[in-house]
UniProtKB/TrEMBL annotation:
Spans annotated as Disordered: 278-299
Residues that span the membrane, as ranges: 43-64
Name the UniProt record assigns to this protein: Photolyase/cryptochrome alpha/beta domain-containing protein
Site entry: Electron transfer via tryptophanyl radical: 384, 437, 460
Pfam families xref list: DNA_photolyase (PF00875), FAD_binding_7 (PF03441)
Record's keyword annotation contains Membrane: yes
């Protein structure tokens, strides 16, 4: 158990300046890769209020650091999505006479100094930002606050915005954080419901700057700052760029439409044509059919149908706030009060948003999980297989287990995977192939557009049975049974594994060797039953130590 106020957060709190420096020439909001929106953004709203109060312009700053991308195994898809969103934000801010200044290629260590130099150069009185909970990011913000204190010119203020309920606010009776989800949820919901908590309140939109800012000798030129077309080493092929931006259009309007689509429209029977999911969104609204939200409780695990919100890229990049998702879901389902019940579509969906909070709280409370350590230290010594061919076959979707291969190819094609697909593919790597979960965690981050350290780490440590509230080590998915349950007709497999596109009936889940050979589809890398026994043996031996 850990104290509900993690040390680095406490330190950040301690070094944040009381906002009372001399009047400067501007107020700055520092936007990060996790809060890429103008609507319902706490730090941006507060920065705007401060600028209004002081009668000075508001400026927005964004810092691109390729070293940061390397440290977090960021995927090219995520970087491309960041730049596409940044362009939308620049255009929307310009309508409010607010410039967006993007600084490229700052090395990681130099970020606090570089940001502070800019604040001095602009004679800023205040800097506002939303907190990022990873260790290096907290250290970076603490360093900036300390620098600002030494110089005494700028007040730096960081706010909680990523989670619906911030880390530290969901506590046991003795003031500690939770490491099991169900009791966490039982406290999370009442904290959220408390009228005085304001956790669901929408942050106001920023006020427009006076037009005269365009004529300011320094600030006027910031409107001309370019958003880079790409970051070296993170370019996408023309084809990938076109496909990914069709699946995942950038901008807050796109995120809102995606939410609308989930809340108000029904799922089509199959999902995975390479179509713009939004182009059919509104026309699908059919009052005679139950919406995806209404059916979520029962349909969420079906990999062959488009039943979930697909909002994870937007939530991971903060293009939409998680608060807005809860507010709109309650409204769409006609609920006046919060619903987190397992028995309703809306309740079940809000539970998933609570998982996102839960894993973010865990990263804040137990920073070691984000440094490659298992949450349950006793599993640090599990004996892993070192088999580069098996690892590569898994990445390529050529394990010979159709549902795993379809899942892995979905990741390559869409930069996204269905939650069940992630669970099945992750459990297969860790328990059937007995390959270290950290290699899978890294590959997902490098491939997916929604890579989020907390949710990804939480998901991988769940699958590896090493995390908070994990799958017990002996409860190992049988990928063939999972396949029959989540893709009963085999549509999902046939779509992503074209070698099997002509295989009908149950054989698609586990093609006989003769059929597989004829179709050029690989035979299974391992026998599931034997692999399962090996995994249990290895975990059990550790447990006995
Ligand atoms: P919906 O079912 O519509 O859920 C709504 C939102 O709730 C999601 O967008 C997401 O923000 C949140 N959510 C849902 N399930 C979870 C969960 N299990 N844990 C945390 N948040 C959840 N999610 C990421 O956003 N980024 C990741 O890098 C990531 N890696 C994962 C790795 C593994 C091994 C596993 C098992 C899960 C991972 N998840 C991750 C969680 C989950 O798979 C995705 O959030 C979900 O598939 C996204 O689809 P959706 O937006 O349609 O979700």
């Amino acid at each position: 158990k850990a104290d509900a106020s993690p040390p680095l957060l406490r330190l950040l709190d301690a070094v944040q300046a009381a906002p009372q420096p001399a009047k400067g020439d501007c107020v700055v909001y520092w936007m990060r890769m996790e809060d890429m929106r103008i609507r319902d953004n706490r730090a941006l709203a507060l920065a705007s209020a401060q600028a209004l109060k002081a009668g000075v312009p508001l400026l927005v700053l964004f810092v691109l650091s390729p070293q940061d991308f390397i440290a977090h195994d960021r995927s090219s898809r995520r970087i491309d999505f960041t730049l596409r969103n940044l362009r939308c934000i620049r255009d929307d801010l310009a309508k409010l006479n607010i410039p967006l200044h993007t600084v490229s290629h700052v090395s990681r260590k130099k970020i606090p100094g570089a940001v502070h130099d800019l604040l001095l150069q602009w004679n800023a009185s205040h800097l506002f930002g939303n907190i990022e909970y990873e260790v290096d990011e907290l250290r970076r913000d603490i360093a900036l606050c300390e620098l600002a204190q030494v110089h005494g010119k700028v007040a730096c203020i960081f706010l909680h915005d990523k989670c619906i309920v911030p880390p530290g606010d969901v506590r046991t009776k003795d003031g500690r954080g939770y490491t099991v989800y169900s009791p966490f949820l039982r406290v999370w919901a009442p904290v959220l419901e408390k009228a005085s908590s304001h956790h669901l309140d929408e942050a106001p939109l920023p006020q427009a700057n006076d037009r005269s800012v365009h004529n300011h000798v320094t600030f006027g030129s910031l409107f001309k700052t370019e958003v880079p077309k790409e970051v070296e080493g993170y370019g996408l092929s023309v084809e990938d760029q076109a496909r990914i931006s069709t699946f995942w259009p950038a901008g807050e309007d796109a995120a809102d439409q995606m939410l609308y689509r989930f809340l108000n429209t029904a799922a089509r029977s199959t999902q995975f044509g390479a179509v713009d999911p939004l182009s059919k969104g509104a026309s699908e609204a059919d009052p005679t059919k139950k919406s995806r939200l209404a059916k979520y409780k029962d349909a969420r695990d079906r990999m062959d149908a488009d039943t979930t919100s697909r909002l994870s890229p937007y939530l991971a990049a903060g293009v939409i706030s998680a608060r807005a998702c809860v507010r709109e879901a309650l409204k769409a389902s006609g609920k006046k009060k919060l619903d987190v019940s397992r028995d309703t579509g809306v309740g079940r969906w809000i539970q998933e948003l609570a998982w996102r909070d839960f894993y973010t709280h865990i990263v804040a409370l137990f920073p070691r999980v984000s440094m490659g350590r298992p949450f349950q230290e006793k599993y640090a010594d599990v004996q892993w297989e070192t088999n580069p061919e098996h690892l590569q076959a898994w990445k390529d979707g050529r394990t010979g287990v159709p549902i795993v291969d379809a899942a892995m190819r979905q990741a390559r094609t869409m930069g996204w995977m269905h939650n069940r697909a992630r669970m099945i593919a992750a459990m297969y790597l860790v328990k059937d192939l007995m390959i270290d979960w950290r290699l899978g965690e890294k590959y997902f981050m490098e491939t997916l557009i929604d890579g989020d350290l907390a949710s990804n780490n939480g998901g991988w440590q769940w699958s590896a049975s090493t995390g908070v509230d994990p799958a017990p080590y002996f409860r190992i998915f049988n990928p063939y049974t999972q396949s029959q349950k989540t893709d009963p007709g085999g549509e999902y497999i046939r779509h992503f594994v074209p070698e099997l596109s002509k295989v009908r009936g149950p054989e698609v889940h586990n093609p006989p060797a003769g059929v597989a050979d004829k179709l050029g589809y690989p035979r299974p890398l391992v026998d599931h039953k034997e692999a399962r026994e090996r995994a249990i043996r290895r975990y059990k031996n550790i447990g006995a130590k």
